[in-house]
Amino acid sequence: MLSLSPLRQPPEDEAQLLAQAGLLAGMTLGELAALAGLPIPPDLKRDKGWTGILLELWLGASAGSKPEQDFAALGVELKTIPIDRQGRPLETTFVCVAPLTGNSGVVWETSHVRHKLKRVLWIPVEGERAIPLAERRVGSPLLWSPSAHEEAQLRQDWEELMDLIVLGHVERITARHGEVLQLRPKAANSKALTEAIGANGEPILTLPRGFYLKKNFTGALLARHFLL
DNA sequence: ACCTGATCATAG
DNA sequence: CTATGATCAGGT
């Protein structure tokens, strides 16, 4: 029988990764944290990435801040996603930081967004704040790649947003732009600034931005999986 | 009730 | 600062 313990090595293939992820389904974050020897914070207010780190540990992902996929050898990215009791996402999903300069000639095919989303292991986790963190249960894993339709949706939003950035209109972009992919601040606070292109082509300082998947997109891909 | 803009911790 | 991991919380 497989031992229920964190993987100390990266998984060898997708099947092994999925098998390990499957063992976690139904367990609580409290159980997984205790078995991994990880302290459980009272809530996520000051530990927003805690669930993601915990699952990385259990699945043998490279911890830390490397700008790579979580399972580089497999080309797989790990995403935990908080869900309500009906399996619908409670939050948008951060994809990557948006490049605000040096974008002449960039195309969808080689974009960071496309690369990050090429193959994703989604792990739904109960996320309602009424449920104590330690009692929240891990759901069934979903190894996903964008369908042709999903990629077309992503590409359209990405191209629209990148056009605005390149044309110096980043500060006119709001989270309402994009049907499935949105651009929002991704920073420590509202004082953190980075360089971007202004309306007259001049350098400006603005908030760092990130690409996020809207809930309608992740909700649909989860529903497709768990209803079929 | 929900979404958008703001925010939190850590490593390098 | 940028990268990783995301959720918070007030205004609409």
Automatic annotation (TrEMBL):
SUPFAM superfamilies: Restriction endonuclease-like. It comes from the Bacteria. InterPro entries: DNA_mismatch_repair_MutH, DNA_rep_MutH/RE_typeII_Sau3AI, DNA_rep_MutH/T2_RE_sf, Restrct_endonuc-II-like. Keywords: Cytoplasm, DNA damage, DNA repair, Endonuclease, Hydrolase, Nuclease. Sequence-specific endonuclease that cleaves unmethylated GATC sequences. It is involved in DNA mismatch repair. Belongs to the MutH family. This is DNA mismatch repair protein MutH. It comes from Franconibacter pulveris. The lineage of its organism: Bacteria, Pseudomonadati, Pseudomonadota, Gammaproteobacteria, Enterobacterales. The gene is mutH.
